[in-house]
Amino acid sequence: MAVSRRLFLASATALAATAGLTAPAPAAPQGSRSRIPVSPDDTPEDLVRKASQVRPTAQQIAWQRLERTAFLHFGVNTFTGLEWGTGDEDPDVFQPTGLDTDQWARALRDGGFKLAILTVKHHDGFVLYPSRYTGHTVASSSWRDGRGDVLRDFADSMRRHGIKVGVYISPADENQYLHGVYANGSARSPRTVPTPVDGDDRTPSRSYTLPATDYGAHMLNQLYEVLTEYGPVDEVWFDGAQGHIPPDKVEKYDWDSWYALVRSLAPDAVVAVTGPDVRWVGNEGGLAREDEWSVVPVQEKAYGRTDYALSYDAPDMGSRDALVAARPVADHLQWWPAECDVSIRDGWFYHADQQPKGVEQLTDIYFRSVGRNSVLLLNVPPDTDGSLPAADVRRLREFRERIDRELPEDLTRGARTVTSPGRVTVDLGRDREVDRVRLGEDIRHGQQVESFVVEAYVDGGWTEVSRAGVIGASRILLLPAAVRARRWRARVTGARGAVRIAEFGLYRSRV
After folding, report:
1. 31: pLDDT confidence band, cut at 50, 70 and 90?
2. pLDDT tens-digit map of 432-446
3. Are 164 and 66 in contact (CB under 8 A)?
4. How far is residue 450 CA from its own chain's centroid?
5. Which residues does the annotated region (Disordered) include (predicted)?
6. What backbone torsions phi and psi does residue 320 show, to the nearest 5 degrees?
């Protein structure tokens, strides 16, 4: 979260096992074509050809279709006013006496969000469910007499209102550092998960033996709890944060083992953003690049972490020039689409003196994230009562209503459409005014379009009304003025391989 994402992303090699270690295996689902090896000897033509062959996994396709997802930062920081806690907070400070996760779910549903991610554990180490492996949890608070479970309430409410469940478990843990577990210098060794504890009444149907440090095993056990006791999870969200600890005390995270466990226990989930399935876009303003590629060059780092081959904030992440620039260090081309995270307020946690962003700003963020081949992750922090603030709820509804007015009924529905290689032509049946154009590739066949133009048949000839670079899963163009025409077409002017356009929508905004 805040200031932590830029500390790297993740994965590639996993060691999944049942009662024993296995040989390394790809972190992507078996049979996936989501990553293809490259070498410094590849020619520019080789790189483009390989990029055209990369395909998303089924999980990545499902994630991309969500378009708008939500983050809920909630924990002891909500009550202390901090953005990054210290780990020695008194758990009793956590007192959301009016906790209403159904209100969260209703507000997110009415705002158009399809998945929500809860901060199950932030960097301070306080856990929002009664974990067996730490005392720094809701069970140590007098809230609900120590029987509260925010994760349980959250998961049940989201599913009850048709919203998918995501979890964020911070790799950093200030509390475990204070207890001598995090960054204690322990070596990786085989660890059995779940690790039995006193009074443990579980009878796991499957156990895992995975390489981990002391803290890596602690994380594995918490992941096991979350992914086996709270129902299906569709996104597991990590960042790469290190704790506020001496530089010689760095914890080397056991990414490969964590990913292996997630793959086994939550096979439908994407692992983001220090993960092999979804990458951080590179800023916390919710803004994608003008041309956002889902196929990007990566390099594999220690313990299976997939890292950027270029800088995380490089202005160009996947063009032909970028593929060549990354050639000396890249070892794969990977389907690694961008997630654009931003908070509705200035902070990630609730602060009473902050107010939500305006509808105009949120709408601009939408067009510069969802409209640029990315998924928007909007944080909406609950307040100290345990509810989403009324101003934020109202803003979410206004935001959804604004997008509905920006992109009302698609004028191409029922229209005559002719598709030929690299071209889609639509006859609307009569002249219609258009000022929004939406396109999407069938990403099951990769991301191929490098440039295209949109044209309208005006005054007896085809007239260019807009041009852009990549398309990907979603590209939305805002025309500077409405254009009136009956016939419209999208024409690809540059591509890496065979193009399959899945969507060519025309709209007249009602703003």
Report:
1. low
2. 999 999 999 999 999
3. yes
4. 24
5. 23-45, 185-205
6. -55, -45
Q: Helices (H) and strands (E) in the chain — how many of each?
A: 11, 22
User: C-alpha angle 115/263/330, rounded to 5°?
Assistant: 95
With contact defined as beta carbons under 8 Å apart, do 446 and 55 qualify? Answer: yes
The tens digit of pLDDT for each residue in 411-469 reads: 999 999 999 999 999 999 999 999 999 999 999 999 999 999 999 999 999 999 999 99
Q: Which amino acid is at 227?
A: L
Question: Residue 409 is which amino acid?
Answer: E
What value, to the nearest 5°, has the Cα angle with vertex 82 and ends 78 and 86? 110
Angle value at C-alpha 285, between 99 and 382, nearest 5 degrees: 5
pLDDT at 25 over 90: no
Look at residues 178, 174, 128, 234 and name the one whose alpha carbon lies nearest to residue 4. 174
Tens of pLDDT along 106-118? 999 999 999 999 9
Q: At what angle do helices 390-406 and 101-110 cross, to 10 degrees?
A: 20
CA distance 511 to 507: 12
For the record, the structure tokens of 444 come out as 């099951």
> Does the N-terminal peptide bond of residue 480 adopt cis geometry, omega within 30 degrees of 0?
no
Q: Which helix (H) or strand (E) element contains residue 59?
A: helix 58-64
pTM: 0.94
Q: What is the DSSP string of 2-25?
A: TTTGGG----SEE---SSS----E
Torsion of the alpha carbons at 153, 155, 156 and 159, rounded to the nearest 10: 150
Dist CA 219 CA 168 (whole Å): 12
In terms of C-beta density within 10 A (0-12 exposed, 13-18 middle, 19 or more buried), how is residue 328 classed? exposed
Beta-strand ranges (E) seen in 353-415 are 374-379
Looking up tokens 């066949």, which residue turns up? 445
